[in-house]
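pls design
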């Protein structure tokens, strides 16, 4: 079964996802790294050379490819905004929205030059993007997990693992 972790940039998809993969005995796939390898260029290069619409198309195709895997997938921040991709994710496994306050996400991403959306927007604009995406993530997910930044990624992964076990029963 595939588990897609979605949420805003900096919410912990990769960090919690790696812990969840260890806990469940699955592999972890970071969707952005997967796309960079497939395209043989970085995300900023894809945005600069081919544009965001091209990247979003590749992201949607990647969801289809990875839906056939038995893995924990840390999605890019925009992957599950696409309702078709989200439906494929839910049909093939579970889509989990990692809900984290904007301030936590922003502190984690504010200086990350590998995120074109961060580099091209102010803090206020990013918060507007965050607010606009939050309800879409929730609507497109199997369930939402409030990720607690006061506990370890392993503890958050244990919470998610327990929820997945209940859902899959």
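designed seq:
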């Amino acid at each position: 079964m595939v588990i897609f972790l979605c949420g805003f940039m900096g919410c912990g998809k990769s960090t919690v996802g790696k812990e969840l993969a260890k806990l469940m005995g699955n592999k972890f796939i970071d969707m952005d790294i997967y796309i960079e390898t497939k395209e043989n260029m970085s995300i900023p290069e894809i945005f600069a050379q081919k544009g965001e619409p091209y990247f979003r198309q590749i992201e949607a195709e990647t969801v289809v490819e990875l839906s056939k895997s038995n893995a924990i997938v840390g999605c890019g921040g925009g992957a599950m905004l696409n309702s078709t991709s989200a439906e494929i994710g839910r049909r093939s496994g579970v889509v989990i929205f990692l809900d984290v306050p904007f301030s936590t996400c922003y502190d984690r991403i504010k200086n990350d030059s590998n995120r074109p959306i961060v580099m091209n927007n102010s803090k206020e604009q990013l918060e507007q993007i965050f607010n606009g995406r939050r309800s879409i993530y929730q609507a497109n997910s199997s369930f939402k997990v409030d990720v607690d930044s006061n506990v370890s990624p392993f503890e958050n992964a244990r919470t998610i693992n327990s929820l997945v076990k209940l859902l899959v029963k």
